[in-house]
Amino acid sequence: MSHRSIPSSSFFGELRTRELSGLKVRQRPYLGDLSSDAAGFIIEHENNPSPPLALSFCESVGKSHILAVSDEEGFVSFYDTRKNLHCHSSCWDKTAEARVSQWVAHENAIFDICLIKDDSHCITASGDQTIKIWNVERRKCIGLLIGHTGSVKSISSHSSNPDLFVSGSRDGSLAIWDLRCNSGINCHGVARLLSTLIVKEAHLSSEGSRTRRVKAHSKSVTSVLYLKDDISIASAGAVDSIVKFWDTRNLKLPISQACPDIKSFSKKEKMRHGISSLSQDSSGVLLSASCMDNRIYLYDVLHLSDGPKKIFRGSKITSFYVKSAISPDGSHILSGSEDGNAYLWRVNKPESAPVLLRGHEKEVTAVAWCSTEVGKLATSSDDYMVRVWNIKKESCISTRSPYSMNKRVTATPRKLCRKLNMDETESRSKDIANRACISVETMMNSPSPLKTNLLECATPKTLKRQKLGIILSEGPDMQRAPDPEAAFDSPSSVLNPPSSSRRRTIRDYFVQPSETIKSHLCD
């Protein structure tokens, strides 16, 4: 179930929030300064370490800090990445303290794991040629999916229907599954399911098709994706760098495909390279493909005919275990590497040098992004370690406008606010009255009222007008100015002059005799 954001209660509520906290400016954070615990999690079972093969963060609200890990021994483990681990603890103690649960899911390696139904269930793809559906809380298998004749390398769920997902296998096929269609119950009470649709030889080599025996690696489907339009599927294989797109309503032939421009490569680079993984952002517009030519290609799904939109270089992708992933907001790309480092690029600056995440001792394989916490990611390695990286607190970019007040606003009860406002108003009134009386006394005691600074807080224009009025008031024929509270107390009233025997001019309305000022100030 998707969680929608709650809109603001009213327009005035938004204005009030803007006045208190400033104008919010959405900025993509810079992830160049990441930190990781010195130890991290070591994947082990009864003190026997096992290389992790797949990672996946939970996506539901309240569980995004839980990380699911599958390994080569067939275990599924869940870890709390927010666990406050003691610095003096060893790797083994930290792992045991952060582990939420684990169980044996397969008798073979688990190459991929996918969380569905608000993270209450998970799907595991194994080298035993089967796919299993698990109830996470009960750690019980509730579905067994059979049909592939090779190791299942990749799985991907439907974005809006958790009962649908697609799988890719080393036997060269991709299959679509519907958990609502079971073909019976076995003796252990587990539902047995068969694929609803299957495409065989989805990525078959043209050279291999002419021979009797086709090598498994030349036809293997290494990665599959259920695209965000909920109709299309993307797949990649080990034979070449072509990404194929399929329409689930008609799987006879791919509807489109994308590949890098081979003509722009040198002669040494024109050999065939497979793809180890595919990933997409939350909108489904951008799709990344990590290729065995040590490049990561970024495609625009809406303009596949244009080829790769951007190319990222630097990591060493020498095996199909090395994966890459684009961030949910589509701003960064994270990749493993054979040299023991993880590489991080900014999508809008592919030519810039990537950020190196150092900390692993062997090949970095699987990577994962947290969809709800910006800047949080995880990497796994053949050194049996899983590291969780976060943005350092001092490197976080503020989302406030530079023109907003850089201070924390504390909410105050309404009654207290009224009392404070009343006290402040009374104190200001007394202060103004005291200043006015002092000014009047100063003016009356002064030998020349014209030289006193009557209103020090007045604007320059107002002060000039007041002085001009006092000077003009000494004339013998000058009449008294009208009451300031009258209808004609501004220069604009000249356009509609009052009925009088003498015609007034605009300067009449700026005259303020000292007596009028004194009476108003004392009031």
From TrEMBL:
The record's listing under SUPFAM superfamilies reads:
WD40 repeat-like (SSF50978)
The superkingdom of the source organism is Eukaryota
The UniProt entry annotates WD repeats at: 103-144, 145-180, 214-256, 325-355, 357-399
Question: What are the transmembrane regions?
Answer: none
Q: Which GO terms describe its cellular component?
A: nucleus
Q: Name one GO biological process term.
A: proteasome-mediated ubiquitin-dependent protein catabolic process
Compositional bias (Low complexity) = 490-500
Pathway linked to the protein? Protein modification; protein ubiquitination
Q: What UniProt keywords are attached to this protein's entry? A: Repeat, Ubl conjugation pathway, WD repeat
Task: Return the annotated region ranges for Disordered.
Answer: 475-505
Q: Which InterPro entries match?
A: WD-repeat_CDT2_adapter, WD40/YVTN_repeat-like_dom_sf, WD40_PAC1, WD40_repeat_CS, WD40_repeat_dom_sf, WD40_rpt
GO terms assigned for molecular function: protein-macromolecule adaptor activity
Q: Which family, according to the similarity comment? A: Belongs to the WD repeat cdt2 family.
Q: What is this protein called?
A: Guanine nucleotide-binding protein subunit beta
Query: By which gene is this protein encoded?
Result: GB1
